[in-house]
Write a structure and sequence with these properties.
heterodimer; A: mainly alpha; 10 helices; 73% helix; globular; B: mainly alpha; 13 helices; 78% helix; 0% strand
Chain lengths: 283, 272
C-alpha cells in the first residue's frame, strides 16, 4: 500500500502540478490562476449591480459568490479528469508507457486529481480573498468554522476524486469527443447542485437531480462553515443539521468510491479490449 | 492549374467545406456544443430569477449564451487552429502549397461562422422557448448590419490571433482558457457593459463582441436603449473600423509568419 503510494501517488501528483504550472514563470502562473476564477465571479457581481434593486448585502449575494468560488474545485477536478487522460493518451502520448510501468493506474489518476485540487485551491483562495477585500463578501476569518470547513473540504476532495476516476476511466473507452464528457458532467453539476442559485428555483421535476448530487450537500456544508448564520436565509436544506449533511455526504462519497473502483475495472478492461490505451482521436 | 483570384476563391471554399460538412458527419458535436452552453445560460437565467430581475435580463442571458458559441469558435477553432494544424503536421503542407494563407483563414472563418450560426440559433430558439423571452426589435436592418459587422470584426480578430498563436507553444491552451471568462466579463455577455463605466467599456470595445452585443441589445429589447453604452450608429461605425483593422493586421502577421517559416525553418516544428 505504502509502496504504491510512494511509487505512484507522489510522482503522479508532482507530475500533475508540473503539467499545470511549469509552462510559464510562477508569477504569470499565479496571474493566470487568478484571472479566470475572478472573472467568473465578477460576471455574477456585475449581474448583481445591473439589477439595481438587489443589494450586495443580500444573503443571496454571498450565497452566489461562495458557491461560484467553490465550484472551481468541481470544474477543475471533474472536467480535468477527462483532460488528464486525453493529455496522457493523445497529447504527450505517455499513457501506453504508464500502462506497462509498475504503477497503479487508479492511484495515478487519484494523484493527478489531487494536483488539480491543489491548483484549484489556489484559485479558490484568491477568489474568496478578493471577495472579502474587494467585493464586500461577508466572510470573517475569526467567525469561520474552520474544523467543519476542513472536514467538508477533505470529504469533498475524496468525492470529487472518485467522480474524476469514473469519468477518467470512462474517457479511456471513448473515441469521439471524449473531452465533452467531463465538461458535460461539470456543467450539469453547476446547474443542478445549487452552485449559484438555490435548487428550489428549478422546475419541480428537476429538483430531485439536485438532491442526488453529493456536491449539493458539500456546497451547503462549505457555505455554512464560511458564512454561518447567513445561510439561514435559504430554506432548501435548512431541515438538515450539519451532522445530517456530513452523514449524507459521507455515504454518497463511499458510494461513489465503490462505483469508481468498479468503473475503473470495467472501463479498463473495455479500453484494453478495444485497443484504446494508445488510440489517437485527434480531439 | 488555377491561380490568382480563382485559386484564392477555391481555397476559401475548400477550407470552409470541412467546417460545414464536418459537423454533419459527427452530430454529437452539435449536441454537446449546444447543450453545454445552454446549461450555462440556464444557470445565469436562474441567477437573474433569484434576483427577481426584469424579463429583459433573462433575454440578455439567453442572447449572451448564444453569442458564446461564436466566441468559443473564434478562440478554439480560429485562433488555435494553426497551432493544431502544426500539431497534426498540416501546417507545413499549407505553407508549401501555392495557395494563400489568407484564403485558408478566410475559408476557416466563413465555414466556422456558418456552422456556429446554426448552433447559436439552436441555443437562442431553445432559450426563447424554455424561458419565454420576449423580443421587441426596433430595426431589423440595423440588427442584421450589426450582426454581420460583429462577425466580420470578430473573425478578423480570429484570423489575427491564428497567426499570432503560432508563435506560442503548449501555453496556447492556457492562453485560450484565460480568454473565456475574462472576455465574457469584459464584453458583457450576460449583463449590459455600461455597468463598467465609460473608461472600462471603451477599453473593452476593442473586442468586437462588446459593441456588437451592446448594439444588438439596444435593438431587440424594450429597455435596450436605456442600458446601451453608445448610440447604435456609433457602434456600427466602430465595428466597421474594427473589421478593417483586424483583417489588415491579420494579413500583415500572416505575411510575417510565412517569411519566418521560410527563413528559420522551425515554425512547423512540432516541438515548439
Amino acid at each position: 500500500m505504502m509502496k504504491a503510494f510512494r511509487r505512484t501517488f507522489i510522482p503522479a501528483a508532482w507530475l500533475g502540478w508540473q503539467v499545470e504550472s511549469n509552462w510559464t514563470h510562477p508569477l504569470v502562473f499565479f496571474l493566470f490562476s487568478a484571472i479566470k476564477p475572478i472573472s467568473g465571479v465578477m460576471i455574477l457581481v456585475f449581474m448583481f449591480r445591473a439589477v439595481s434593486h438587489v443589494s450586495v448585502s443580500s444573503p443571496l449575494y454571498a450565497y452566489i459568490y461562495v458557491g461560484n468560488a467553490l465550484y472551481i474545485y468541481v470544474a477543475s477536478t471533474v472536467a480535468g479528469a477527462s483532460y488528464s487522460i486525453l493529455d496522457d493518451r493523445e497529447r504527450y502520448r505517455s499513457l501506453k508507457y504508464l500502462y506497462i510501468a509498475p504503477v497503479s493506474i487508479p492511484v495515478y489518476m487519484f494523484g493527478r486529481a489531487v494536483a488539480r485540487f491543489l491548483t484549484a485551491s489556489l484559485a479558490v483562495a484568491i477568489t474568496l480573498a478578493a471577495g472579502c477585500l474587494l467585493f464586500r463578501l461577508p466572510i470573517h476569518p475569526l467567525q469561520v468554522n474552520w474544523l467543519m470547513f476542513l472536514a467538508a473540504l477533505v470529504l469533498g476532495l475524496l468525492c470529487l476524486a472518485a467522480i474524476g476516476i469514473i469519468l477518467g476511466a470512462w474517457t479511456l473507452t471513448i473515441r469521439s469527443e471524449p473531452h465533452f464528457l467531463g465538461e458535460a458532467v461539470a456543467a450539469a453539476m453547476y446547474l443542478f447542485s445549487g452552485a449559484i442559485f438555490p435548487i428550489t428555483l428549478l422546475p419541480t421535476y428537476l429538483q430531485p437531480i439536485g438532491y442526488l448530487m453529493p456536491m449539493t450537500y458539500w456546497l451547503e456544508l462549505m457555505r455554512r462553515a464560511l458564512l454561518g448564520s447567513g445561510m439561514t436565509a435559504f430554506p432548501t436544506l435548512l431541515a438538515y443539521s450539519n451532522g445530517d449533511l456530513f452523514v449524507i455526504l459521507a455515504l454518497l462519497t463511499g458510494g461513489f468510491g465503490v462505483v469508481a473502483f468498479a468503473a475503473f475495472r470495467f472501463f479498463d478492461r473495455v479500453a484494453r479490449d478495444r485497443g484504446m490505451i494508445d488510440a489517437q482521436s485527434n480531439f | 492549374m488555377d491561380s490568382g483570384w480563382r485559386l484564392f476563391l477555391r481555397t476559401i471554399v475548400a477550407r470552409a467545406y470541412p467546417r460545414v460538412i464536418g459537423q454533419q458527419r459527427q452530430k454529437s458535436w452539435i449536441f454537446f456544443e449546444t447543450f453545454l452552453p445552454f446549461l450555462a445560460v440556464a444557470g445565469y437565467v436562474y441567477v437573474y430569477r433569484a434576483m427577481e430581475a426584469s424579463p429583459d435580463f433573462i433575454g440578455f442571458a439567453v442572447m449572451g449564451g448564444a453569442m458564446t458559441a461564436f466566441w468559443l469558435n473564434v478562440i478554439w477553432s480560429m485562433s488555435a487552429q494553426m497551432y493544431w494544424e502544426k500539431d497534426n503536421g498540416n501546417l507545413a503542407l499549407y505553407i508549401m502549397a501555392p495557395n494563400s494563407m489568407m484564403a485558408i483563414l478566410l475559408g476557416m472563418a466563413l465555414g466556422g461562422m456558418f456552422a456556429t450560426a446554426l448552433r447559436a440559433a439552436v441555443i437562442l430558439v431553445f432559450g426563447i422557448w424554455v424561458f419565454q423571452v420576449q423580443f421587441t426589435v426596433s430595426s431589423y436592418i440595423q440588427l442584421f448590419a450589426v450582426f454581420l459587422l460583429t462577425m466580420s470584426a470578430l473573425y478578423g480578430m480570429g484570423m489575427l490571433f491564428a497567426s499570432l498563436f503560432l508563435l506560442y507553444g503548449r501555453n496556447v491552451w492556457q492562453v485560450n482558457a484565460v480568454m473565456q471568462e475574462p472576455i465574457y466579463l469584459l464584453s458583457g455577455f450576460y449583463f449590459p457593459v455600461k455597468n463598467f463605466g465609460m473608461a472600462v467599456s471603451l477599453v473593452a470595445s476593442i473586442i468586437p463582441m462588446t459593441l456588437g452585443m451592446d448594439a444588438m441589445r439596444q435593438l431587440v429589447f424594450s429597455n435596450g436603449p436605456a442600458i446601451g453604452f453608445l448610440p447604435v450608429r456609433t457602434e456600427i461605425f466602430a465595428l466597421v473600423s474594427l473589421s478593417v483593422l483586424f483583417v489588415t493586421a491579420a494579413k500583415y502577421w500572416l505575411d510575417k509568419v510565412e517569411r519566418l517559416a521560410v527563413q528559420e525553418g522551425t515554425l512547423t516544428d512540432r516541438r515548439r
